[in-house]
Amino acid sequence: MRRIPRYWTLPLAVAVLAAGAACSGNSPKTEDVEDAGPVSLKLGTADDDGKPGGLAIVQFVEQVRTLSGGKLLVYPVWEAAGHDVRQWDQGVARMLKDRKLDLAMIPSRAWDTEGVTSLRALSAPFLVTSDALADKIVTSKDLSAELMAGLTEDGATGLALMPEGLRHPFSFGPALVSPAAFQGKVIRAAKSDLGDATVRALGGKPDDLVGDAFGAGVRDGTLGGAETGFVLSDALPVPGIATANVTFTTKMNTLVANSALLGELSPENQAVLRNAAAATLQWVLSHRATESAYAAAYCNRGGKIVTATPANLQALDQAVQPLYGELEQDPNTKAMIDRIRTLKKSVQAPPTGTATPC
Questions:
Q1: Which residues of 185-220 are buried (b: 16+ CB within 10 A; e: fewer)?
Q2: Distance of alpha carbon 174 from alpha carbon 298, whole angstroms
Q3: Which backbone phi and psi does 32 adopt, to 5 degrees?
Q4: Domains recognised in the chain with CATH numbers
Q5: pLDDT tens digits, the chain, 358 residues: what are they?
Q6: What DSSP designation does 155 have?
Q7: How far apart are the C-alpha atoms of 54 and 211, rounded to whole Å?
Q8: Among 58, 80, 171, 344, fewest CB within 10 Å belongs to which?
């Protein structure tokens, strides 16, 4: 039996029962005839039901069922693009575009390979470096709406942005604390044009290895590290050395609908989806644990946490500056980066928002 990690404090059993209630109908169908029975929609994700994004989906399923009085049902499609496939997030995005899915939960980082540029500011290196800042971004309705506005270019409509966790370098050898430490190392990272460019700017070689290849790379020494978060670190083949104060970005999930499908729904059902997304965002914000708690659990599993020196942090920041030059050639991206920088000055991360070395 597969173990379900306890990422948030709400008992998963309650959420799973809710999902089961929502998924007990016939095959999914779209809205076409009034009073023809419940409208059924498929929501795809690259995650399974034990990941943070999966738990948010289970909550969204229940919110939709409750708010619609059972007249609108959402069916999760776990690992929608397949198990152990590369470009797993992009696979889900393409299924949504092709209407093989009605809804999807897709990390914001993934959209840049699909021609969506409005979300790139969220993945700008070393910009969104605290849960507190991420929370401020997703709860600023005008900012989150502008960030998701470009999704329409790929036939999607954003319903909500949901934060997941900070992303750090985890090394399977010497700690990744400086550009010199990254030099020539293969770094496992989820596919993203900007994410790949960030790893390259630091001297590494990005690769979205999956399955046996991931573990084999660690065992034979060809894989130097991984870009991930403490919340997902139990999925690493072996515990490594995490650099706590090097935060590439914060993973954000976009909850989206196929735009054409959304337009076919009644105004009432469109409102249900939007209200359920807003309620799910509030659930995510109130039920996730802190960065320090995730880090402590990682240490208890045998992981090690270190910090980079101020000089190394400055060198890392300098290495990625050419990327900002490229990003800011787009006026909209530059405006989003500037707004996030302004927000960052007003936000102070609490002590529990920082991992402690171990």
A1: bbbbbbbbbbbbbbbbbbbbbbbbbbeeebeebbee
A2: 18
A3: -140, -40
A4: 12-353 (3.40.190.170)
A5: 333 343 443 333 334 434 444 443 334 455 544 556 899 999 999 999 989 999 999 999 999 999 999 999 999 999 999 999 999 999 999 999 999 999 999 999 999 999 999 999 999 999 999 999 999 999 998 999 999 999 999 999 999 999 999 999 999 999 999 999 999 999 999 999 999 999 999 999 999 999 999 999 999 999 999 999 999 999 999 999 999 999 999 999 999 999 999 999 999 999 999 999 999 999 999 998 999 999 999 999 999 999 999 999 999 999 999 999 999 999 999 999 999 999 999 998 888 899 999 9
A6: T
A7: 19
A8: 344
Per DSSP, helices labelled H in 183-266 are: 193-201, 211-219, 259-264
- The answer to whether residues 316 and 178 touch, using CB atoms and an 8 Å cutoff, is yes
Q: What is the pLDDT of residues 330-345, one digit of tens each?
A: 999 999 999 999 999 9
In which residue are the tokens 């995510």 written?
284
Torsion of CA 173, 179, 185, 187, to 10 degrees: 90
Output the furthest CA–CA distance in the chain (Å, rounded). Answer: 66
Residues 41 and 261: beta-carbon distance below 8 Å: yes
Residue labelled with tokens 């985890």? 170
Q: Up-side HSE of residue 289: CA atoms within 13 Å toward CB?
A: 19
User: What is the distance in angstroms between the CA of the first residue and the CA of the last residue of the chain?
Assistant: 31
The amino acid present at 217, given as its one-letter code, is G
Question: Helices 331-346 and 141-148 meet at what angle, rounded to 10?
Answer: 150
**DSSP letter (8 states) at residue 357:** P
Alpha-carbon distance of 286 to 9, in angstroms, equals: 9
pLDDT one-digit tens code per residue, 281-339: 999 999 989 999 999 999 999 999 999 999 999 999 999 999 999 999 999 999 999 99
Burial class (CB in 10 A: 0-12, 13-18, 19+), 63: buried
The Cα 223–Cα 217 span in angstroms is: 5
Rounded to whole angstroms, how far apart are CA atoms 30 and 38?
9
Instruction: Give the sign of the dihedral formed by CA 26, CA 31, CA 35, CA 36.
Output: negative
